[in-house]
Specification:
There is one protein chain. The chain has 283 residues and is α+β, with helices and mostly antiparallel strands. Helices cover 51% and strands 17% of the residues. The longest helix has 25 residues, at 97-121. The chain is rod-shaped.
Length: 283
């Protein structure tokens, strides 16, 4: 009896044995480099193409990666080392980014949330340069996708800016409005102001001596000693002075409210107003 040699069937058998070997090696939930090396050597020994063999087990590799991600998400503690290990595992398994993105994206989301929460937690200390530098290093160490890293760094710089104002480092800008000889300008921008039932358009100026609403009608100014309170709202801020109250609609209420409170604290140190409702934190 003559037996016909079928190279395609033999190759299929080799690939299937490769799959079974892979499943045995990952049965304990890990796949370190030395195990990959053992599979590579086995491929060489039986004449299998390494890339073709890894492509053959792609579905098994994806299932394994999914289990690894599930374990990482289960404890909700994502470290930069864990993300680095996960990315190395992805390369070891030869899983392209377009096939692993959905799985790893879950890890990225949790990592970004964790860092964002840490920025809020350290908000009161972000006026210190060494704290900022430590958090910058932490963010870059995670090696997140560029858009997530950029978002976190922007949030960090924003909180740094607010924290510096709160400790008295007020910005000084140029303005075309005439000021006193020794008066510095901290803010100059267009705003809408609701006061006594009347909505007016004008400019808000915050200086070292006073707070002014400049408008063709209904404008006013108040010295810092007469600025009693400022409260930030979602799209506006409420300003309480010794002569009148006004709701100011501006582009960045948090920034303006923090600047007013910080300037008032700086120029009238014994009677600082409350910038934000108690219990609220910088966002």
């Amino acid at each position: 009896m003559r037996f016909l040699f079928d190279p395609l069937k033999e190759k299929e058998q080799k690939l299937e044995r490769f799959r079974q070997s892979f499943k045995i090696l990952i049965s304990d939930g890990v796949y370190p480099p030395d195990r990959q090396q053992r599979l590579f050597q086995a491929c060489q020994k039986v004449g299998l193409d390494w890339d073709e063999a890894r492509h053959y087990i792609r579905s098994d590799a994806l299932a394994f990666l999914a289990k690894v991600v599930e374990r990482m998400l289960a404890d909700a503690v994502i470290t930069s080392d864990e993300i680095a290990d996960l990315r190395r595992l992805q390369r070891r398994l030869a899983i392209p980014d377009d096939q692993s993105s959905t799985l790893i994206e879950k890890v990225y989301v949790l990592a970004e949330q964790k860092i964002a929460s840490k920025i809020i937690e350290y908000a009161a200390y972000l006026g210190e340069e060494y704290v900022i530098q430590t958090l910058r290093t932490d963010i870059t160490a995670y090696d997140l996708p560029v858009i997530r890293t950029s978002r976190l760094l922007t949030q960090l710089e924003r909180q740094h800016q607010l924290a510096r104002m709160m400790i008295g480092n007020l910005p000084v800008i140029m303005t075309n409005i005439g000021l006193y000889k020794d008066e510095a300008c901290h803010y100059d921008s267009s705003v809408s102001v609701l006061t006594e039932g009347d909505l007016i358009e004008g400019r808000l100026l915050i200086t070292s001596k006073r707070l002014m609403i400049i408008a063709t009608r209904g404008g006013f100014q108040t010295e810092w000693s007469q600025c009693h309170a400022v409260e930030m709202m979602e799209r506006s801020l409420l300003l309480v002075t010794g002569t009148q109250n006004a709701m100011v609609l501006c582009e960045d209420p948090q920034y303006v409210a923090t600047l007013i409170a910080s300037a008032r604290r700086h120029y009238v140190p014994h009677e600082a107003p409350t910038p934000i409702r108690q219990g609220k934190r910088l966002i």
